[in-house]
Amino acid sequence: MKEFLRANEVFRNRNKGGHRGLLDVALTLTTFVSLAVPSQQLSLSTVISALPVNSWSLPMRRVQATENLSTKTFVKPIAVPSLQVSMAVDRGINGVYNARDPKSIPAGFVRMCHKAGGFAPRPIWDELTNGVTPWFESKDGCFMYFNCHDSRWWIDDSSGSPMYLAVPDESLLLPPINGWVTLTGRKAGAPRMNFI
Questions:
Q1: Residue 35 shares a structural domain with residue 97
Q2: Domains: count for the chain
Q3: pLDDT digits (tens, 9 = 90+) for 30-55
């Protein structure tokens, strides 16, 4: 977790003066990997598909490795930290949230799409998210994700109903620790978070 937070701090320092656009985040990620492996032309989809799915990680640090007297540079994946959510009035929201592959769709989101009129979840999920930022899920199926349309992080319950939202603080790669509010804008009863 310390490596990820250190890498995230570097990302934030390069981004002083406001949030970068989501396309900039994706291009930065792709450019970083392309610079780390200059012999290959990499697209964003290649970068994301090459990352491990079981513990989604972001390529953020270059590592030198010596092999047969030649030096090669490669990207070392850095694990995305889990989150401990607590103090939410809606007790089902509290718990540990683990990072998930941004290409996968939360089961609660699929349920909500079907409940709302049988909409296909894939095009809606792809439209709402940026395909780079991981979403987080609790063992109970509650999930949080970054919504590109309103530039907010959302926490939905296991049925896909929205419960809380927050403005990103300094990074689009991780949800904010503070600033969560209910859908009516109240801070009372909103969750608190810590990285674990």
A1: no
A2: 2
A3: 434 333 333 334 344 433 333 333 33
pLDDT digits (tens, 9 = 90+) for 144-196: 999 999 999 999 999 999 999 999 987 778 999 999 999 999 999 999 999 99
20 and 103: one domain? no
Asked if pLDDT for residue 70 goes beyond 60, the answer is no
Domain co-membership, 69 together with 115? no
Q: What are phi and psi of 61, to 5 degrees?
A: -140, 135
Strands across the sheet with 143-147, in order?
A: 181-182, 162-166, 152-156, 143-147, 135-138, 95-100, 83-86, 192-195
- Rounded Cα distance between 187 and 8, Å, is 27
- Beta strand spans in the chain (E): 57-67, 70-79, 83-86, 95-100, 135-138, 143-147, 152-156, 162-166, 181-182, 192-195
pTM for this one? 0.64
**Does 70 lie in the same domain as 90?**
no
- Write out the residue range of the structural domain in which residue 42 sits: 2-79
- Decide the pairing of beta strands 83-86 and 192-195: antiparallel
Residue 157 has a CB neighbour count (10 Å cut-off) of 19
